[in-house]
Amino acid sequence: MEYLDIIPFRNEVSSEVYIPGSKSISNRALILASLCRAKTTLSGILNSEDVALMIAALSKLGIQVSEDDSGKKLIVCGNGGQFAKEATINVGNAGTVARFLTAALAFVQNGEYHLDGSSAMRLRPMSELLESLKRLGCLFKFPKSDGCFPFTMRTNGLSGDSWGVDARQSSQVLSALMMVAPLVNHKTAINFDGGTVSKPFLDITERMMESFSTDEFQIKKEKESLTVISNGYTAKDLLYEIEPDATAASYFLTLPIVAGGNLLVNGIKENMLQGDAKYIKILRKLGGEMVETEEGMKASFFSKRGKGGNFDFNDISDTFLTLAAISPVLAEPTRIYGIKHTRKQETDRVRAMATEIRKLNQEVIEQEDSLEIKPDLNKLKAAASKKVIIDTYEDHRVAMSFAILGSYDLFGDGKSWMRIKNPMCCSKTFPDFFHVLEKLRAQSH
């Protein structure tokens, strides 16, 4: 599908929606299950491109991954990190696969692995993790650019009990080292001078490691260091349930601000393993009513236009695109900051959002770490009088965020005014996203 025209909601939304499992949790669970010495059953795992890439990689490395009899759960037979000694692996555009798997492979004695990714992945930061692994005994060869995909790694196990990594650009490099540490030492200190970003993801890693660990597990945290204390991962079979994706939920929690009405997002709670659930607080500041029920989070909005505001997204940066995209239909300016590190994700997300919002005739002030959008509904209508075409940069979050804006009935006639190019880039985390959105539109009344 080269493009998709987004049909606005003529009526208020009044329904419920189910969100697929979290990508972050799914791929952490797959890695951790492979590092155990037991059989792990994963319930609620996400069916998406990123997760498929992780499963394919683990399968190449000799990890048995299969569906249970119901076809709704995955069974992973871990081998304590004793992967096949040689493999060629494509990580696609999946940062979790690229970083988590590379660190886990470094644990293997006398291994040789050839890794590559998409054209976008070749531009994403990997040198920080690779430099750390070099210091711990791993060797790398780069046929193109140093510190980037593609590369060949020769592994000799990991050494030392005091590690260091530059985590200023990505907390994933820190999570990667945290997860492999229990295989190497009872006690491992990891230093990350200069701090890190997206700290809630480290909390996810810590809490998941505890779920997969033996009796003794603890992480002692300082400002720029942490110490992993562990007796290793479990040798007992276990069942692990994966939460719905809080980032994917952000689109549907935001939908009532665009369409009006109310929507129950099943399985989403204010207190979740995923830090992106904190986006709920931002929606309240915009004027949304967010009520937690036994089933999930019910989002309602009955005012004419949402408020703007000044918001720090450093800890929940995957959701900043959701707010940025709908900012043209808010009543007040919106400033989003703490997002510098997202310039090195699937695409330069700050630049991408600024570029596309300017297509909507909106004033955008772009700085290294922030975006400020000054909404003007009349200018939006002028831009939309000729269909606005949104480029997605092969970034799933760009596609899904602007689809929510396109659901706004700008001219009051239910006619499409937005076209999204390459909409199926959302298969990275939410293959059925546009089907779910269309179903909600059909149910609105």
Describe this structure in words.
53% of the residues are buried. It is globular and about 65 Å long. It is α/β, with parallel strands linked by helices. Strands 2-15-17-16 form a four-stranded mixed sheet. Strands 4-5-3-14 form a four-stranded mixed sheet, with helices on one face.
Descriptors:
four-stranded mixed β-sheet, 445 residues, 13 helices, alpha/beta, 31% helix, 23 strands
Major sheet size, sense and barrel closure: 4 strands, mixed
Mean pLDDT: 96
Record the strand order, biggest sheet: 2-15-17-16
Cα-based radius of gyration, to the nearest Å = 22 Å
Strand residue percentage: 15-25%
Per DSSP E runs of 2 or more residues, the count of β-strands stands at 23
Helix percent band: 25-40%
Class by helix and strand content?
alpha/beta
End-to-end distance: 29 Å
How many H/I helices?
13
Backbone shape: globular
- The low-confidence runs, each spanning 5 or more residues with pLDDT under 50, are none
